[in-house]
Amino acid sequence: MGNIVEIRDLRKSYKDGFEALKGVTLDIREGEILALLGPNGAGKTTLISTVCGITTATSGSVTVGGHDIGRDYRAARSMIGLVPQEINLEPFERVRNTVKFSRGLFGKSRDDAAIEKVLKQLSLWDKRDNQIRELSGGMKRRVLIAKALSHDPRVLFLDEPTAGVDVELRKDMWEVVAGLKAAGVTIILTTHYIEEAEAIADRVGVIAKGELMLVEDKDKLMARMGQKELQVQLTERIDAIPESLRSDRLRLSEDGAALIYAYDTRADRTGITKLLSDVADAGLVLRDVVTRQSSLEEIFVNLVKNGDGKEDAA
Ligand SMILES: Nc1ncnc2c1ncn2[C@@H]1O[C@H](COP(=O)(O)OP(=O)(O)OP(=O)(O)O)[C@@H](O)[C@H]1O
């Protein structure tokens, strides 16, 4: 699969001198769902706006389908749909007209069949003649997506599609996104919610303080999350792990007071029962047993920490 968007060393300093993007390089693969996770003020919206050509980069480059967003703005922009964070719809306008109008803005000829397709895709066809003000919050969000899709873009950017919405509506949105992917649209979404990235993304990027800290296949991240540790705390410290217990998965804590066993929660056999009986056979006495899991949350929190150890407000 080729790259549909290529971002190279993208930097953005605002007028007041604030550097919101500090050299972001990222390839977006055609057909994927990429979730960009990051705390408030990380630079997610700035990144999306710059990639879409709404904000001008200070330096670096962006191409969409091979078109440079600066030099070849119209061609690049026509391939992009952008769903903003805020609901900015005209309350008295009707659903179908709202979407039709957006298509016109891209200089595309009138195409009632295309508008019908988009409205059906987003389960808005029954509401086509309703005014925007007559829709529920979830439907209004879907109208925003329909508007962004009205000119048949190949890439859709969703800026926090589920910020502040309830669980039900969030799941509804995830289904919409999955449906769009199935229809061949490449999707980039920003989110604060780790579970959102887990639920729908193919790849996850973590952005903090204007830098892309990590981009990785979600499954690989999940595999890391599947790792758990069992701490077998001992009544007496030991200097070394007894010969009979040695394994790649077992190590001794620094103070010698606990054995630390790594296992995969999703494996058929974790080996815990055997470990505990082997520990007893080796003559060691347990004081307590504790488990801990490295989660995407933990990976995320560690990544967005400042170099000086302070934590960003999430
Ligand atoms: N027009 C502007 N002028 C100056 N600074 C700005 C401007 N727009 C954004 N910033 C700053 O750039 C940084 C990144 O903002 P941005 O909106 O991209 O973050 P974000 O990751 O989308 O945050 P959120 O999750 O809160 O939406 C913030 O510190 C913000 O204050």
From TrEMBL:
Transmembrane segments: none annotated. GO terms for molecular function: ATP binding. InterPro entries: AAA+_ATPase, ABC_transporter-like_ATP-bd, ABC_transporter-like_CS, ABC_transporter_ATP-binding, P-loop_NTPase. The keyword Transport applies. Gene3D superfamilies: P-loop containing nucleotide triphosphate hydrolases (3.40.50.300). Residues 5-234 form the ABC transporter domain. The keyword Transcription does not apply. Keywords: ATP-binding, Nucleotide-binding, Transport. PANTHER family: ABC TRANSPORTER ATP-BINDING PROTEIN (PTHR42711). This is ABC transporter ATP-binding protein. It comes from Sulfitobacter sediminis. The lineage of its organism: Bacteria, Pseudomonadati, Pseudomonadota, Alphaproteobacteria, Rhodobacterales.
